Write the structure tokens for this entry.
Amino acid sequence: MKFFTLILFLIIPIVSLAQSCDCLVNFDYVVESITKNYAGFNDKVKSKNREEFLTFTQKIRNKSKFTSGFDSCYVNLRNWVDYFHDHHLRVQLDWKFRKNNPDVAKRLNKLFGKSTTIANGSENLATATSLKILDSTTVLLRLPSFEWSEKKIIDSILHVHMKDFDQRSNLILDMRGNSGGTDYAFNGLMPLIYSLPIKVKPDEYLSTQENIRILESNLSEEGISSSAKDFLNQVILLMKTHPGTFVNPSGKDFFEITLDSIYKYPSRIGILIDKNTASSAESFLLMAMQSKKVTVFGENSAGMLDYNNTQFFDIPCKNLNLVIPIGRSKRLPEQPIDNIGIKPDVVFDSKVTNRIELIRDLLNKQ
């Protein structure tokens, strides 16, 4: 993979300063790391905007030379990273810093927009995965997250309540505020959703020395499954064999998921989403919407899926985290989702209340 030679003048050698919060040191580290390791860099910086990008970068770098305060430096870094319009790519306050300085964290984050969890209308969104039997025809499953920790909870609920699904024609999945996590978390839902073979575009990964190093370090993480290790080892081997390129562990432009059977019930599935339904939750939507059973309600999802497999890079200032997506979807460039979102089948405007009850009524009329 070719990198722009014009960017080199922006980069200076990074001195190993484990605890350094020197703004210029951190700015140069962020620029160098993203330029080399971000899967979307060459998609976002092309000949038509290269001069604009370099001018913008030099402007923030000059500013960082004379920035001494932590707050101002954080703003500099965030402003530069925001050029890429990718919510997976970010400089963020470290969790320990947020814990020890809650007022500072709140004030700084207010400068960059609203929280990512905003309830619709007057409805309070439950923060725990849960199941509720609404009536003799409808089951409601609240799915606020697809974090890895939720997988066991989701699978347990599905196991305990399978009879409830078998006896009712309607299933409502409330995915408002679900900011994603891992695709593994929703695997157990697929048999309920399934009606036709599901086409999936795989991801490909950018091979660089630093990306390889980070994936190798992931192998020693506590709790990683043997299947996850096997997959990581496959990706790492491909990366080492094909440096400087994108590698596709699936070896295909798309593949199909085919299950052995189609469940009679639930026969009608309503999925409720909002502008905070993001990342892996959007990955689930792309698969679920291929089912004849499924109707999606609400508003456009967040649009946060094109560049993925985020990894933490060791930025010199330990009060900050640098998070970089090292993978991208094979949907690109034909089917982008970032900053667009997935449009529901039935759009609800902001004035619509009692959305769950409305969806139940609409499903019953189908």
Q: What stands out?
A: The first strand starts at residue 90 and ends at 93.
